[in-house]
Design a protein that fits this description.
The protein is built from 2 helices and 9 strands. It is mainly beta. The protein has a single domain, classed as Jelly Rolls, CATH 2.60.120.
Length: 156
């Protein structure tokens, strides 16, 4: 008789890599907003779990807001992005609120990275370390890249 681990490994549900166990898609109950977007690429396309769809701000900067209800534990954030003139340097700065009623945003993460993919159908992953906490809102300030294809989190 095989062990449960061996049965899971043969299962289609078993992750193929360690990376697949770390990140998970955003929960279905999140709300997303952006300070700007094009009509054909609204913010919801960054959270629809389809890599080939994307939010496009229509400019080289944009602010993308994720609202969790209830709050979600987060320590890593993975964005997938790729669009525009490359290579380019992009800055992603993340601010948060533990409760929506909190007055001020707190800075919880930042990464400056070189983006080499200009193909929105094969986006480049960008990992951002987040100060571990339970947040009801994350605000991602994008500078240099106007597209987010997908967002995944690691928490717990």
């Amino acid at each position: 008789m095989s062990s449960l681990t061996e049965e899971l490994r043969r299962s289609d549900d078993y992750p193929n890599t360690i990376e697949e166990t770390l990140y998970k898609p955003l929960p279905d109950n999140v709300n997303v907003e952006a300070d700007r977007s094009t009509t054909s690429h609204p913010p919801g396309l960054a959270t629809d779990k389809l890599i080939e769809t994307y939010w496009y701000s229509g400019a080289v900067t944009g602010n993308f807001k994720i609202i969790f209800s209830p709050g979600e534990w987060v320590s890593l954030l993975r964005l997938r992005t790729g669009f525009g003139i490359v290579p380019t340097v992009a800055t992603f700065e993340v601010f948060a609120k533990e409760r929506l009623s909190d007055g001020q945003l707190i800075s919880v993460g930042k990464v400056v990275t070189q983006i080499t993919s200009n193909d929105p159908f094969h986006p480049q992953p960008v990992d951002i370390d987040i100060v571990w906490g339970q947040y009801e809102m994350l605000l991602i300030k994008c500078n240099g890249v106007p597209v987010i294809n997908d967002i995944e989190i690691f928490g717990g």
